[in-house]
């Protein structure tokens, strides 16, 4: 099995702000994950490439990026996103899609503190809203009425990673008003991590459009078993499996689900 769906529950758990945001543009998503290195950038790049190949317009942002080394910028999350968008990697593009860059490969609050800096949460939320409206304004005049246009915002680390002493990534997602895609794995222990992250998001009214189960390598648990067990516990949230052996069908399934 490379991809499967379980029925969507919709957004009835969302706050008014989330529902309002959906009414503006249903094609913008926040890409979060159960933890670091789970595959957020991989999934975002795969969607961008799939959409480019099928003629859909999309942009992606990685506003907060820790572990950034200018000497290897191309391999950074921002570099990968720019490549997947078919854009040139230069200082202006980096500043545009990843304005909060930190050298230390640590949680954002710690990485910022190492440089005597901090993340201005309100400015981060403001930027997230601007990313979306800039995309819309740049595109709507040239768009066919039925043409799709999407903005993807990649988070940092997992759902509950601190951004500063008061805020976590979950607060950022909630304030952004975006529905999210939760990237998870299939390693031993992933079930609890996935269900915990899902509950944390739903508790504050964030709509979870899909859980992407990105197959973990060298796992003692199969992807099929992980999907089957999750299905019993996610309350109807859509599940999409990305199998290492056949990733493209999982990406196509995710595209279909996102509409
Ligand atoms: N389905 C996949 N197929 C092949 N490689 C993958 C897949 N998913 C993830 N990887 C690889 O695993 C590593 C971690 O993935 P990725 O960088 O996307 O994680 P992340 O969640 O974005 O991490 P971060 O928290 O640093 O942003 C990368 O080298 C990536 O290329
Ligand atoms: Mg990443």
Keywords for this entry:
259 residues, alpha/beta, binds magnesium ion, disordered N terminus, binds adenosine-5'-triphosphate, 6-stranded parallel beta sheet, Rossmann fold, two-stranded parallel ribbon, single chain
Explain what you see.
With 259 residues, the chain is α/β, with parallel strands linked by helices. The protein has one domain: Rossmann fold (3-Layer(aba) Sandwich). The protein starts with 15 loop residues before the first helix and ends with a helix. It is 42% helix and 14% strand. The radius of gyration is 17 Å and the shape is globular. Helix 9 links the parallel strand 7 and strand 8. It has ten helices and eight strands. Bound molecules: adenosine-5'-triphosphate and magnesium ion. The site of magnesium ion (MG) has 4 residues, from helix 2.
How is the topology of this model organized?
Blueprint (H helix, E strand, L loop, with lengths): L15 H9 L4 E5 L6 H14 L3 E5 L2 E2 L11 H9 L5 H7 L2 E2 L6 H7 L6 H20 L8 E6 L14 H8 L3 E5 L5 H14 L4 E7 L8 H9 L6 E5 L4 H12 L1
Parallel strand pairs: 1-5, 1-6, 2-5, 3-4, 6-7, 7-8
Bound molecules: adenosine-5'-triphosphate and magnesium ion.
Under the CATH scheme, which architecture would be assigned? 3-Layer(aba) Sandwich
How many H/I helical runs? 10
Beta fraction: 5-15%
Roughly how much helix do the residues carry, as a percent range?
40-55%
Strand order of the largest sheet: 2-5-1-6-7-8
CATH topology, anyone?
Rossmann fold
What is the overall pLDDT average? 88
N/C terminus separation? 22 Å
By CATH's scheme, which homologous superfamily applies?
Answer: P-loop containing nucleotide triphosphate hydrolases
